[in-house]
């Protein structure tokens, strides 16, 4: 039954039994949008399994492959295998070295004097190879687990405090009537037009003044109150009937009890949407933690990944592997809370 419903939904058209131009445009737009989002993620995931040399190879290969190597008597290190035409015969030869446009090859089965072959006439012998060391090395040799722990702490604490602070502000602006309430709300929303770079220097000076430099709390505290969160929650709380609050007050419920036992449970869809936004903001934040943090043991995941980029080389195999691994927590949060997104966002405009 579920499969039939899914098929009926996917084949549904604007006019029953007739395919309209708008249906074709809609499907083309959805397919192109899906590919635009999905292809880079799939490519990054597959590239994270490639050996280091294969990531920069041109033209690139889709599947992770690596050159076969063979041990040749008389040589200390294993040599890579290449297919080359020698004396009119195609052979698998081991490369000793490459000098300009010439490659020095030797027969691995019958080592003899090296043969010089043009590099345009040789092709590598490759096999399907999964480079698991791209994931294991950062976990064992580097501080990836420390970076991950710091990011989880910052994201979790900042998200919980953001939900509480923004919910309290939204409750006051939606359910209380006082002089200047509309002006305060407009002032909060107007801060959305202020670029982040304008407030970054003053915020850093405040962090220096209170002694939170190179501290994870210095990353968390300045980002707790967000105008987006206040607007989202206030608009949703406007849909909650005031009669519920009045009835609770008649029963001698305190204002905090009303907020905690009535408002927050009814605002769960909007809170879930804000939680998803907050997790995405904190988990992917790079610039602010880079400014505040200076000790390696305090680096978050995004700042820590920057350590794999040196002055003369970039360790793309580690960056791709750890970047792809860092997508897992955000994906899990989104899968658990995705059903609230449509409900929460749609509810913000009902009143």
What's the short version?
It is found in: Cell membrane. This protein has 351 residues and is an alpha+beta fold.
General description of the model:
The protein is 57% helix and 11% strand. The protein has helices spanning 2-10, 21-47, 52-55, 133-140, 144-175, 181-190, 196-209, 216-220, 227-237, 242-250, 255-266, 268-284, 287-292, 301-305, 316-337, 339-347, and strands spanning 65-67, 69-70, 79-86, 89-99, 102-106, 115-118, 122-124, 126-128. With 351 residues, the chain is an alpha+beta fold. The strands form 2 sheets. Strands 2, 3, 4, 5, 6 and 7 form a 6-stranded antiparallel sheet that branches. A two-stranded antiparallel ribbon has the order 1-8. The longest helix is centred in the middle third of the chain and has 32 residues, at 144-175. The model has no long low-confidence stretch (mean pLDDT 81). It folds into 3 domains: 2-47; 69-124; 142-347, Orthogonal Bundle (MetI-like fold). The protein has 16 helices and 8 strands. Helix 5 (144-175) packs antiparallel against helix 12 (268-284).
